[in-house]
Amino acid sequence: MKKTQHSHSNxxxxxxxxxxxxxxxxxxxxxxxxxxxxxxxxALNVLPKNMTxxxxxxxxxxxxxxxxxxxxxxxxxxxxxxxxxTTLVAALLAWAGWIPxxxxxxxxxxxxxxNFLELYIVALIISAILKMDRALLLQSAVRFLPVAFxxxxxxxxxxxxxGMLLGLGFTHTALYVTFPMxxxxxxxxxxxLASIYGEAFGQSAGPIxxxxxxxxxxxxLLVISGAGLLVSHSQDSPWNGQGALLKQKQGQDDRQQxxxxxxxxxxxxxxxxxxxxxxxxxLAQVCHALLPAVNAFAFLILMAVLAKTFSLVPAAYEQAAVxxxxxxxxxxxxxxxxxxxxxxxxxDALMHTFSWxxxxxxxxxxxxxxxxxxxxxxLFGLYPVEAAITAGMVNNSMGGVGNVxxxxxxxxxxxxxxxxxxxxxxxxxVLVIAGFWASFL
Length: 441
Prior knowledge:
This protein is 79% helix and 1% strand. It has helices at 2-20, 28-43, 51-71, 73-78, 81-95, 101-113, 116-131, 134-165, 170-182, 186-201, 205-232, 252-261, 267-290, 296-309, 315-344, 347-353, 356-379, 384-392, 399-409, 416-440, and strands at 22-23, 26-27. Strands 1-2 form a two-stranded antiparallel sheet. Helix 7 crosses helix 13 and helix 9 crosses helix 11. It is globular. The N and C termini lie far apart (89 Å).
């Protein structure tokens, strides 16, 4: 009898652990079994070195770290919560060698070589734009772009002057600290920037790239943390739009689409939505081939805005694209944050080149961008918190990857289109200005 009661007690505890303690999409007991399986594959070095292995690692680490970051008292209140914790701790685990280098390479290959991040960002942009009310979209864009560009100009002057006062020199700070943080990330930012400098100065681009990377990594870390802190400490402020950029009520289109989304997702619609998003990106690639000076994502945003403005996409296809984007956001954001931390945040490079002068310049850049964009956003009729994040902080992030991390930390992924707009267009202008400056020198 006692044995039966003991067995029943164990079953009750296991049942409660499985159903009341959930990490991501699975219960606590299932997660423990799956994580133990992951550790076994890593110990035996049998994790597949392809997207199946990468996804298994990203989903499990993302679920665990996000849960911890959302529940640890100090972290969830003062350090940005689950998104920040996931990215930074994943980066620390990889940097400390607790995640095998082969696994890091597998995740990096999936995110960068196979470019899953590209699909993720395309889905976010298309769904975010097609979901918006067309009138609000145009009004927001017209006010947003001046805020973003003016914030970049003010920040450029502040940071470069700070570097000069610290003994780094105005020009050196501009070329090797300010411009790298504002150039739009890695692939579309500091990589072409290093080539521009190399051609202008008659040097190899490799050593130059190693100088441009540290300020970008450090600024990316600060804006991710800063975005989470800004939102958590302004929840009850009238300056917080709770995810809305423009100070105006929700439009009719948004209400209709929200009602349609509540009817549930259908498998065929998800495939349709994926196809619509890919079609937009293919068209953007064609435009980029015809006009290489403009980034493909800039064309993607432009065409999505035009399609929404002139109702070029039938309502059913538009809703399908929105549904697919929402599916990507809800299922892949935590894994992507973990993957970014594991594979794309190079803390080792940052540690080797860190100096207090660099830290001060980066901190001045983040603070200036944040306060300038927030204040200008207020003047232009935008919510200061949302303006500070989308027109300010993201312009010190690692491009598309950084935008996702910053907006996730701020719980503002619905504003990805504006973040990308500022990053891509602003980054392109920075590359042009840097090219002229380097050639002149």
